[in-house]
C-alpha cells in the first residue's frame, strides 16, 4: 500500500467551513450573547459611576509676554500662524504637565482630586495639523469636569509664556459635558465578540481538517491507497430513505447501475463470484448499497444471493417488508432447528436473501457457520456478503474461507483517512484481495453550498402548516341544503 499523502487544497478549507457551518453559527451566537452581556455590564457600570465626557478646544497664539505677536505686529501675519502650528506639540506637552495641572487644581480649588486622576483621563490632540488643540476629559462629575477644563484654559496662557517664552491660548469651544451611556462599551462590542466567535469556529474547522482529515476528494482514495474507485455514488437525500431499492428517478440509481456492470465485468475477468462488502465504520451506507447492488446484478439475469453477515447488528433483513420468521433464518439453521433450504427467502426475480435476526441464539463466526453459508451459496452466480465494518470487527476476516474478494465502501466526508488506511491494511494483511472501492454519498461543492443556504440561524427546516382542503361548490351547496333540512326538522319537532 502506498504511504498516505495528506494533500490539502484551498477547496478543502472551504468545504470544511461549509460542513462546519452549524459550529460557526453556534459560536457566532455565543459571541453575540457575550457581547450583549459585556455591554450590559458596561452600561450598569456607567450608571453606577455616572461618567461624563467633557470636551473643549483652544487655539495656540504666537504671542510674547508684551502682548504683541512674534512678528512684532499687533495683528498676526501668515508667519505667526505657521509659528503657532509649530509650537502646538510643545504646547500639548506643557498643558498636560504637572505644573499646569497643579496650577489648574489650585485655580479651581478642587478637593479630593489628584493630579494622576486628571492626567490619566485627560486627552489632548492637535486638530488636522493646525494650531487648534482638542481637549477631552472623562470624569465622574459633570460640573467638576467642566471646572477642571475651564481652569486649564485659564492658567495655560501664563504657563506657556513662562515655559516656552512664547505662546498664548484662545478658547475656541468652551467646556461642555456629555453623559457616556453604558460606559465606553457600545453595540460595536456585539459585532466584535460575534466575529471572535466566528474566528474561533473557523480555527476549529481548520484544526479538524489538519488533525482528522476526512475523504473529501474521490481521487485522493486511489492516489493515497492505490485502490481503484469503481464508481462514485452521488449524494441523494432520498437514497437511504427509500429502502430496500432506490427509485428510478434517484440520482444514486444510475451510479449503482454503473457500479454493478463494472463490478460484474471485473469479477468475471478475475474469476470471482463471492464478494465481501465492508467499510471502515458504521453509517457509511454499506447495507443499503449491498441491497441495491444485488438487485442490479439480479436484473442482469444472474442468480444472486445476499447474506447478512453482520451477526452482532444485522440490518439487511430488516430492510425488507414483513418480519421474517425465526425458522426461516440462518440462526435456526446454525442451531439445528431448520434445514438450510428453509433459510433462503426469495425477494424478486433472481434475487434471494439469507437472513439473520437478532435473538438470544446468536451466530458465532466459526467453521460451522462458514460451512453452512458455503453450502447454501453453491448454487448462485453471485453471492454478496454484507459484513460488519472491518475497522470495528476484526473477526470478519474469517470470511476469507468462503469469499473471493472484497468491495470496500467509503462514505464521502465521513470516515477519517487514517482509519480508512488501517481498515484496508487489515483486509490486505489477511490475504483478502480488494477488487475496488465504492465511494458513497459523494457531494459536490455546489451540493454542500445549496445545503448551507437552506440552514436557518437556529433551526433547520420548519414545521409544515396543515392546510384544510377547500370545499368544492357542490359540497358547499350540499352543506347549505343539509342545514335547511335540519332547521325544518327542528321546527316540525317544535
Walkthrough of the structure:
This protein has 494 residues and is α/β, with parallel strands linked by helices. The chain folds into two domains: 52-179, 2-Layer Sandwich (Alpha-Beta Plaits); 215-452, Rossmann fold (3-Layer(aba) Sandwich). Helix content is 45%, strand content 16%. The chain contains 16 helices and twelve strands. It has helices spanning 10-19, 21-49, 78-86, 88-95, 98-108, 115-121, 142-164, 188-211, 218-225, 251-270, 286-299, 330-334, 367-376, 417-429, 445-453, 473-493; strands spanning 52-61, 122-126, 132-139, 168-179, 229-234, 274-279, 304-308, 345-348, 351-354, 382-386, 405-411, 434-442. An eight-stranded mixed beta sheet has the order 5-12-11-6-10-7-9-8, sandwiched between helices. It has a four-stranded antiparallel beta sheet with strand order 2-3-1-4. Strand 8 and strand 9 (351-354) form a beta hairpin. It is rod-shaped and about 125 Å long. The termini are far apart.
Amino acid at each position: 500500500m502506498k504511504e498516505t499523502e495528506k494533500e490539502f487544497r484551498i477547496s478543502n478549507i472551504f468545504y470544511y467551513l461549509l460542513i462546519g457551518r452549524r459550529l460557526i453559527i453556534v459560536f457566532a451566537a455565543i459571541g453575540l450573547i457575550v457581547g450583549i452581556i459585556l455591554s450590559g455590564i458596561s452600561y450598569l457600570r456607567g450608571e453606577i459611576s455616572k461618567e461624563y465626557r467633557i470636551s473643549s478646544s483652544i487655539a495656540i497664539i504666537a504671542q510674547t509676554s508684551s502682548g504683541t505677536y512674534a512678528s512684532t505686529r499687533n495683528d498676526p501675519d501668515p508667519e505667526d500662524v505657521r509659528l503657532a502650528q509649530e509650537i502646538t506639540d510643545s504646547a500639548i506637552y506643557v498643558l498636560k504637565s504637572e505644573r499646569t495641572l497643579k496650577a489648574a487644581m489650585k485655580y479651581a480649588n478642587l478637593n479630593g482630586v489628584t493630579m494622576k486622576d486628571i492626567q490619566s483621563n485627560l486627552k489632548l490632540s492637535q486638530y488636522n495639523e493646525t494650531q487648534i488643540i482638542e481637549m477631552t476629559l472623562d470624569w465622574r462629575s459633570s460640573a467638576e469636569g467642566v471646572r477642571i477644563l475651564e481652569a486649564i484654559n485659564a492658567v495655560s496662557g501664563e504657563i506657556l509664556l513662562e515655559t516656552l517664552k512664547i505662546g498664548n491660548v484662545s478658547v475656541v469651544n468652551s467646556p461642555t459635558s456629555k453623559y457616556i451611556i453604558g460606559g465606553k462599551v457600545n453595540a460595536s462590542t456585539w459585532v466584535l465578540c460575534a466575529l471572535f466567535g466566528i474566528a474561533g469556529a473557523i480555527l476549529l474547522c481548520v484544526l479538524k481538517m489538519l488533525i482528522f482529515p476526512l475523504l473529501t476528494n474521490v481521487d485522493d482514495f486511489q492516489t493515497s491507497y492505490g485502490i481503484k474507485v469503481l464508481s462514485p455514488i452521488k449524494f441523494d437525500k432520498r437514497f437511504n430513505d427509500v429502502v430496500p431499492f432506490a427509485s428510478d428517478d434517484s440520482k444514486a440509481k444510475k451510479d449503482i447501475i454503473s457500479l454493478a456492470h463494472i463490478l460484474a465485468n471485473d469479477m468475471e475477468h478475475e474469476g470471482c463470484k463471492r464478494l465481501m462488502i465492508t467499510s471502515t465504520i458504521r453509517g457509511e451506507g454499506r447495507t443499503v448499497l449491498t441491497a441495491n447492488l444485488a438487485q442490479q446484478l439480479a436484473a442482469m439475469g444472474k442468480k444472486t444471493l445476499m447474506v447478512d453477515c453482520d451477526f452482532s447488528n444485522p440490518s439487511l433483513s430488516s430492510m425488507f417488508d414483513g418480519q421474517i420468521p425465526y425458522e426461516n433464518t440462518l440462526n435456526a439453521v446454525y442451531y439445528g432447528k431448520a434445514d438450510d433450504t428453509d433459510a433462503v427467502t426469495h425477494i424478486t426475480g433472481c434475487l434471494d436473501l439469507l437472513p439473520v435476526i437478532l435473538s438470544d441464539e446468536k451466530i458465532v463466526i466459526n467453521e460451522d457457520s462458514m460451512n453452512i453459508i458455503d453450502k447454501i451459496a453453491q448454487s448462485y452466480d453471485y453471492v454478496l456478503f454484507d459484513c460488519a465494518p472491518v475497522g470495528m470487527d476484526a473477526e470478519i476476516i474469517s470470511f476469507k474461507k468462503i469469499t473471493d474478494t472484497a468491495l470496500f465502501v467509503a462514505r464521502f466526508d465521513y470516515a477519517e483517512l487514517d482509519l480508512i488506511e488501517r481498515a484496508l491494511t487489515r483486509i490486505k494483511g489477511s490475504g483478502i484481495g480488494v477488487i475496488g472501492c465504492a465511494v458513497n454519498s459523494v457531494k459536490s461543492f455546489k451540493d454542500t453550498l445549496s445545503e448551507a443556504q437552506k440552514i436557518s440561524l437556529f433551526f433547520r427546516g420548519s414545521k409544515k402548516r396543515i392546510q384544510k382542503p377547500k370545499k368544492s361548490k357542490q359540497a358547499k351547496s350540499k352543506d347549505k341544503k343539509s342545514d335547511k333540512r335540519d332547521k325544518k326538522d327542528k321546527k316540525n319537532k317544535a
